[in-house]
Amino acid sequence: MTPVMQKKICGGERLKRLRMRLGLTTREVDELSRAIASRQGSEDFTVSHARLVQVENEESVPSIFKCFSLSAVYGVSISEILSYYMDVDAPSRLHMTMDLAHTHPSSVESPRKDKTISFPVRLNPGASASLTTPLSELVEAWGEVPVSVLEQLNPRKFRYAFIGLSDYTMYPLIRPGSFVQIDQHQKVPGPAHYHSEYDRPIFLIELRGGYVCSWVELESGRLRSVPHPLSPCRTREFAYPSEAEIVGRVTGAAVRLVQPEKRALAGRDHDGCDTFAAASGAIAARA
């Protein structure tokens, strides 16, 4: 028996179904959108009867302004409407595949709060959590958990940053190309004495021309960005907070362990620490 091919529902048809569900005509949507445009102070937010007919017939794609108005009229999120035309979760995934040279903060939040992700819901009682073990052996069962629920389980809002491929400030503790978690509530360096380099807090610092992750020393209105002793970078000093601000403390990191071929140095910039490109392949680690 030949399986019946399911027709893909396109964006225009989905928008039409939203309109029909509310019992609205295209002219009523036109009128409602004009009220929105008046409040927003721009005619770009108007969704005319003729334009909406074109959109629903797949002859046109609504602009971001018209998606805004349709979102307000139909009572769904803008990201939901955009998802009818594109994968709204793709940008964050694509960004993580880009080998960018400079360290920079990054948002990894999903625009769709109703989306679910796979999450371990039951651990294997026979596995030892004290030993380095593949995650597949630790987890006995996986379940689908809404992204919004996971966000509620984490009361502190973190920021995230990529360590640029030319940033060797904390090498080899944090390699270029690593992904770090930033706790914005911790912005003041602690005591000056630490048992090891792992105990000394690392901070993300925002400079006038970019960002850097390093140890920090504050004294008399000056901020010193202190690199790892094995790093090729040098200590840098800035006026604080006019030239440098502390974004937060690095509390976790996905550290790259494998390095591909080193590229020849055309001259080392100790401020940017542009030495050689880092690699792909990462594991999760706590800082």
Q: Write the CATH fold name of the largest domain.
A: Umud Fragment, subunit A
CATH superfamily of the largest domain: Umud Fragment, subunit A
- Name of the CATH first level of the largest domain: Mainly Beta
The CATH architecture of the largest domain would be Ribbon
What's the number of extended β-strand segments? 11
What fraction, in percent, of the residue positions are helical? 10-25%
Number of domains: 2
**In DSSP terms, counting alpha (H) and pi (I) runs of 4 or more, how many helices?**
8
Structure description:
The protein is an alpha+beta fold and 287 residues long. The protein folds into two domains: 11-82, lambda repressor-like DNA-binding domains (434 Repressor (Amino-terminal Domain), Orthogonal Bundle), CATH 1.10.260.40; 158-286, Umud Fragment, subunit A (Ribbon), CATH 2.10.109. Helix content is 24%, strand content 25%. It has eight helices and eleven strands. It has helices at residues 11-21, 26-40, 49-56, 64-74, 78-82, 90-96, 135-138, 147-153; strands spanning 104-106, 116-123, 139-146, 158-162, 179-183, 203-207, 210-219, 222-226, 236-239, 244-256, 282-286. Strands 1, 4, 5, 6, 7, 8, 9, 10 and 11 form a nine-stranded antiparallel β-sheet that branches. Strands 2-3 form a two-stranded antiparallel sheet. β6 (203-207) and β7 (210-219) form a beta hairpin. The chain is elongated, with a radius of gyration of 25 Å. Mean pLDDT is 77; it is low at 1-6, 129-133, 260-270 and 274-287.
What would a concise description of this structure say?
The protein has 287 residues and is an alpha+beta fold. The chain has helices at residues 11-21, 26-40, 49-56, 64-74, 78-82, 90-96, 135-138, 147-153, and strands at 104-106, 116-123, 139-146, 158-162, 179-183, 203-207, 210-219, 222-226, 236-239, 244-256, 282-286.
